[in-house]
Amino acid sequence: MLHLRNGFVRMSIFAGCVTVATMTIAQPPDPQQILNLGLRGVYFVPNEGQWRDRDVIYGLRSRGIDVAFRESALTMHMSRQSTEASPTRERGVEALTSRDRLQAVSESNGQEAGLDELASSTSKPLTLTVTFPGSNTVDPIGAQPQTARFNYFVGGEGRNTAANVPSFAEVVYENLYDGIDLHVTGSDEGILKYEFHCAPGADYNQIQIHYDGIDSLCIDDSGNLRISTSLGTLGDGAPIVWQVPGISRDSISAHFELVETSTYRIALDDSVDNDREIIIDPDVSWMLYLGGSDRERTVSDVAVDSGGNAVATGSTSSADFEGRINNWNAEYDGFVLKVSPAGVLRWMTYVGGSGTEYSNRVAVAGTGSIVVVGSTLSDDFAGRINSRHPLPFQNDAFVLTMTPEGQVVRMRYVGGSYNDTGEGLAIDTSGNVYLTGTTQSDDFEGRNNTRFPESDDAYVLKISAAGELSWMTYLGGRDDDSGADIIADDNGDLYATGSTRSSNFRGKTNAYHGGSWDAYVARVNGAGILQWATYLGGSESDYATSIAIAFGDEVTIAGYSYSRDFEGRSNSRYGDFDTFVLTVKSTGVQEWMAYFGGRLYDRAEGLASDENGNAYVSGRTSSVDFVGADNSLHHLGIDAFVFKINRTRQLEWMTYLGGTLDDFGQRVATTVDGFVYTVGRAGSLDFEGRLNSYHGGDADSFLLKLFGGARPELSVVATCPTGGPIRISWEAAIPNGQTALLYARALGEFVVPNGHPCAGTALGLGSSQIQLVFVGPSNANGSRTLNSTTGPNACGGYLQLLDLTTCATSNVARIE
After folding, report:
1. d(C-alpha 328, C-alpha 293), whole Å
2. Which of 85-99, 543-557, 712-726 has the lowest mean pLDDT?
3. How far apart, in whole angstroms, are the C-alpha atoms of residue 798 and residue 280?
4. Is the pLDDT confidence value at 280 over 50?
5. How far is it, in rounded angstroms, from Cα 795 to Cα 276?
6. Do 734 and 279 form a contact (C-beta atoms < 8 A)?
7. Quick one: pLDDT band at residue 85, thresholds 50, 70, 90?
8. Which among 713, 719, 803 has a CA at the least distance from the CA of 758?
9. CA atoms of 567 and 569, how far apart (whole Å)
10. Residue 134 has what pLDDT?
11. How far apart are CA 806 and CA 603, in angstroms?
């Protein structure tokens, strides 16, 4: 598959070649069959001396095939066994846990097969080497760390014992061609998959794939690549290109092209619109525990850089935080880290001094610089360019600038004599930084107005791209006011949001609604002058937590509410308190508001938008019946969540995230290729989708990546009751994945039982007489005729599509 997105190209060029099932040599594989590797989990393992060939950097071992990853090349050793197996051959030492592998090696008298030892005398071997003509010289690296570790206790000439060897779910050749990375992954279904990831401006025409050890290459009438070998013909399906215009998907024609006898490339037949996205990826991609052996307070925020890397920040008391490039200071430190799109922790750095730091927000400037804000008690904060303002035991806010590699450029204290916190952060196109938070200081540096005494005020301030404080403005009234988040629009205006108890909020355009707190939004111009402020809420307490530009160009705010009569509501509250999302015009007039949630606790913490104007909301919930959920709450406590509202303000999907204990979602960010990052605090050791293991302490931070695109959609047309073909169609499934169609006589709630694909997934079908209609390849968009004729009994039933790659479900369609 070839994936394009504004100059990005990804090709899955070897999706599902090569199986070696047990068969007689006289029976070659069916040339029409896409052969299966027979993998049971995918474990790419580094060579720590357990294999005598020192040129092997990583290896993959499975039934009948070994893959050796070398410098700018990989070698596949395959064998086809005869009907009589050798009594001395290893008993199925595959991708097992270290305990299973040790037992298997013990039972085989210590003779574990390796990447440098081909099949026994009763099997026919084949070695294929894949190289990339014209490529750079690069070594592979492991990505997506797995929990499994391996012990190799078989020594011998040229081989060492190796204990506790890590494993990975992916191998990456970075910059194999200029601007192009090669990713190799696999699946439990036995598919070995290559992808090329091309950076903007990189020429994908550089890419060529060459085989040594084959008889010939050819392309059949259907455009599939056929690889003729001494073991039979191996196959690779014709490439597919997907481009996303808005919220739908279009196909672009592509084909294999032979360069010479054993070399081929991939060519495009259609032109590409560089303003439109291409997406082919799984739903929940991965989840990564972040931390050390002590307590991580949380990952409080996440941003995305131009390379699609996640940059996250939070606070920790762990002196051994994984990935650290410097030393822990004391008590709670702030931290900043970067994780690649594949889930590889690039680096982590502590920020702060000898006191306590809470790092709250992070953003990435257009130059790639990283900006972090929070609060500090440290007089000796590393990188400071000024002195801390407050009295002892009082916080200053801080603004920290870092390089893309995690090195501190400068840190500025902001505040006055008493407590000041940094809570919200925005960067404009000129690199100016805007900050909001809460202050108790009458003498806040840079102020252009005065504070109401004896209460907390919110504030907004500007720091130039050079790091100089330009101005600071108090927001609020005579009672307590807090600042939560801020954005800068394209016109240079700022919109700040938070919560207030003040009925006399400066610049108010409407009246306080009631309850202990109202949410608010305030507009401030580029010179720091308040333009207006608007109360948001109902007769009970309402809290705003996040703000973004979504649904085109509208100011959008998320939070949570106890009010059943929230002004402007378009629906009714679901439970004890609900998440809310609303829009406000540039004049301060509220335009639309909706509740989201279930009958218990639903709290929004983060809000982000994508380039198509869709909004994504993250937070935490204890509601098992969150409206729009496409899976089940992982337990009876608290889960993180993310949901998507499309630009027409319709809930498109909602996903619970977590494990068997409490997991708290915080902020959310989107990537240009349709993915969503979300962060928070994980108490669960079994967080779904995890790549690594819990580090220890009371809680770990977590970073999770999931696909933000549309879920499968199903439509049904039938002729009833006189009979006729039932036609179904779907959109936005995972290309080259597997899809199951299910039928039931009634609607209801049915959870896929254990022992079946997508166990635990909640369906919208009744459990009575539920039937599996078919399982087959999905493509991204597809259609199928279920049968040529049908009787009246089919009428009135229901169908639902289950994407077996992502476990996402479609709508439920009635047969009418």
Report:
1. 13
2. 85-99
3. 28
4. no
5. 41
6. no
7. very low
8. 803
9. 6
10. 92
11. 26
The DSSP secondary structure of 521-536, one letter per residue, reads EEEE-TTS-EEEEEEE
Tell me what percent of the residues of the chain surpass a pLDDT of 70: 75
Cβ-in-10-Å burial (0-12, 13-18, 19+) of 59 comes to buried
- 3-class DSSP state for residue 380? coil
Dist. CA 763–CA 809, nearest whole Å: 7
Two structure tokens written together for 116: 């440098």
Question: pTM of the predicted model, to two decimals?
Answer: 0.62
Count of other CB atoms within 10 angstroms of residue 456: 22
Handedness of CA 503, 508, 514, 515 (dihedral sign): negative
At CA 171, angle to CA 64 and CA 196, rounded to 5? Answer: 105
Taking the C-alpha atoms of residue 801 and residue 812, their distance in angstroms, rounded to an integer, is 8
Query: Token match 């003040």: residue?
Result: 502
Burial class of residue 221 in the structure, from the number of CB atoms within 10 Å of its CB (0-12 exposed, 13-18 middle, 19+ buried): exposed
The pLDDT value recorded for residue 201 is 66
pLDDT digits (tens, 9 = 90+) for 14-67: 322 222 222 222 222 222 222 222 233 467 899 988 887 889 999 887 545 678
Residue 640 to residue 655: CA distance in whole angstroms: 9
Report DSSP letters for 105-161, one per residue: HHHTTT----TTS---TTEEEEEEEEE-TT------EEEEE-S--EEE---BTTB--
Among 287, 281, 279, CA closest to 312: 287
Q: Tell me if 455 sits within 8 A of 480, measured CB to CB.
A: yes
Query: Which of these, 665, 634, 586, lies nearest to 751 by C-alpha position?
Result: 634
What does the pLDDT read at residue 153? 64
Structure tokens at 352: 């702060």
Beta strand spans in 377-456 (E) = 396-402, 408-414, 420-427, 433-439
Contacts of 519 (CB under 8 A, 6+ apart): 497, 498, 499, 500, 535, 536, 537, 542, 543, 544, 557, 559, 561
| Alpha carbon distance 406, 715 (integer Å) | 49
232 phi, psi to nearest 5 deg: 125, -170
* Cis amide linkage into residue 757, ω under 30° from 0: no
Q: Which two tokens stand for residue 347?
A: 């680096």
Sign of CA dihedral 361, 366, 370, 373: negative
Winning range, highest mean pLDDT, from 11-15, 450-454, 705-709: 450-454
| Phi, psi (rounded to 5 degrees) for 599 | -85, -5
Low-confidence winner among 471-475, 697-701, 800-804 (lowest mean pLDDT): 800-804
Q: Measure Cα distances from 338 to 420, 454, 617, 632 in Å.
A: 27, 41, 22, 30
How far apart are alpha carbons 378 and 353 in whole angstroms? 5
Contact 761, 751 (CB under 8 A): yes
Q: Name, in order, each residue with C-beta under 8 angstroms of 777's C-beta and a sequence gap of 6 or more.
A: 736, 737, 738, 739
Any bridge partners for residue 316, and if so which?
Answer: 296, 333
CA distances from 383 to 323, 374, 407, 573, 698 (A): 21, 15, 10, 48, 30
Average pLDDT score, the chain: 78
Higher pLDDT, 771 or 607: 607
Kind and range of the H or E element at 515? none
* Residues 117-156: tens digit of each pLDDT: 322 334 467 788 999 999 999 999 988 776 667 777 655 5
pLDDT digits (tens, 9 = 90+) for 467-496: 999 999 999 999 999 999 999 998 889 999
Report the alpha-carbon distance of residue 36 to residue 62 in Å, rounded: 11
Cβ atoms of 479 and 454 within 8 Å: the answer is: no
| Nearest 10 degrees: Cα torsion 45, 226, 72, 344 | -50
pLDDT of residue 737: 63
Beta strands (DSSP E) in 634-780 are: 639-645, 651-657, 663-670, 675-682, 700-707, 713-717, 727-731, 738-744, 747-751, 762-765, 771-777
Amino acid type, 48: E
H/E run at residue 102: helix 98-107
